[in-house]
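FAQ

Q: What does a record look like?
A: Structure on top, sequence underneath. For example:
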């Protein structure tokens, strides 16, 4: 066994946090030889439910679970954390405008960013899952001035996985033969699942799918998959979101397949695909050595660039709604 790593998770009494905690505790993130300390963070009213989660974790007797801390105190929860999953967020309620949602979540992610800056490991990796994830990640990063922009990302892996699944079912192939899927932009209905550079068992996907189906059905279905799940089960994605968060962090920590890339929401500096500065935007990335590198120089047709510009425009609008929360 190695030295334990510390993983902090917010919103752990909620559905996604509950689903993810047991996967991490059992070795599903870092492997069977890596012990973990779990720091589970909740709001005060949910501490009773969180204690039940702790009891269940102990009852599983996972050999990789070294220690569990349950708390409502952010500095205690993020203390020496090597990896952080920011899952807990305010859901959008009836009659709530997007700006209202962004400001409500700003009151959550602003102090969380500051507490991570004070208390977590200096080499921490922070994944924002709680929606609207891209702009929540921007708020957290701006309030953690000692963190590098490369230490915070937002989760686009659920959209990435959905895009792979939809294509694999259409072509009747296994998901693992699909490489170089890209989902650009925001985790919203402006996201752009892009098949232009995607391959299926080594063949260009553009040669295998009908372009009318791709533009009229495929893109729409990926953009609206979350709403379809809510309509079907009466609740938002939980198990699939937890699985995607595990996938995202595992690749970030341990690396990606050298022959392919994944989609991650990362801080922009204006250097890639003419996307403006100071946004958390999803790009194709390679991960290696606890870091990532945006895949540069991909040729993009006018349709793709138009879709990317639309998502960028939405993220600029979101950012401008929360300027007071950005340090």
């Amino acid at each position: 066994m190695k030295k334990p790593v510390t993983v902090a998770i917010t919103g752990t009494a909620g559905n996604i946090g509950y689903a993810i905690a047991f996967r991490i505790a059992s070795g599903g993130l870092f492997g069977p030889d890596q012990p973990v300390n779990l720091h589970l963070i909740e709001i005060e009213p949910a501490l009773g439910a969180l204690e039940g989660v702790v009891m269940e974790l102990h009852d599983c007797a996972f050999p990789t679970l070294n220690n569990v801390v349950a708390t409502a105190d952010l500095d205690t929860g993020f203390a020496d954390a090597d990896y952080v999953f920011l899952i807990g967020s305010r859901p959008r309620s009836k009659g709530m405008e997007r700006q209202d949602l962004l400001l409500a979540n700003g009151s959550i992610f602003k102090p969380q960013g500051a507490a991570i800056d004070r208390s977590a490991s200096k080499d921490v990796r922070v994944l924002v899952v709680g929606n609207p994830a891209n702009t929540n990640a921007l708020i957290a990063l701006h309030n953690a001035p000692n963190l590098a922009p490369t230490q915070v990302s937002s989760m686009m892996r659920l959209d990435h996985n959905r895009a792979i699944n939809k294509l694999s079912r259409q072509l009747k192939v296994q998901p693992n033969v699909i490489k170089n899927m890209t989902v650009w932009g925001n985790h919203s209905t402006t996201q752009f699942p892009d098949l232009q550079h995607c391959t299926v068992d080594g063949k260009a996907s553009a040669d295998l799918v009908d372009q009318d189906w791709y533009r009229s059905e495929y893109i729409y279905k990926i953009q609206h998959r979350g709403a379809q799940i809510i309509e079907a089960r009466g609740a938002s994605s939980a198990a699939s979101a937890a699985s995607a968060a595990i996938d995202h962090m595992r690749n970030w920590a341990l690396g990606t397949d050298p022959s392919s890339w994944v989609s991650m929401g990362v801080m922009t500096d204006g250097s890639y695909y003419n996307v403006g500065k100071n946004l958390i935007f999803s790009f194709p990335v390679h991960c290696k050595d606890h870091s990532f590198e945006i895949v540069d120089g991909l040729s993009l047709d006018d349709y793709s660039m138009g879709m990317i510009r639309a998502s960028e425009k939405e993220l600029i609008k979101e950012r401008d709604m929360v300027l007071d929360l950005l340090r």
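Q: Is there anything notable about this one?
A: The first helix runs from residue 15 to 25.
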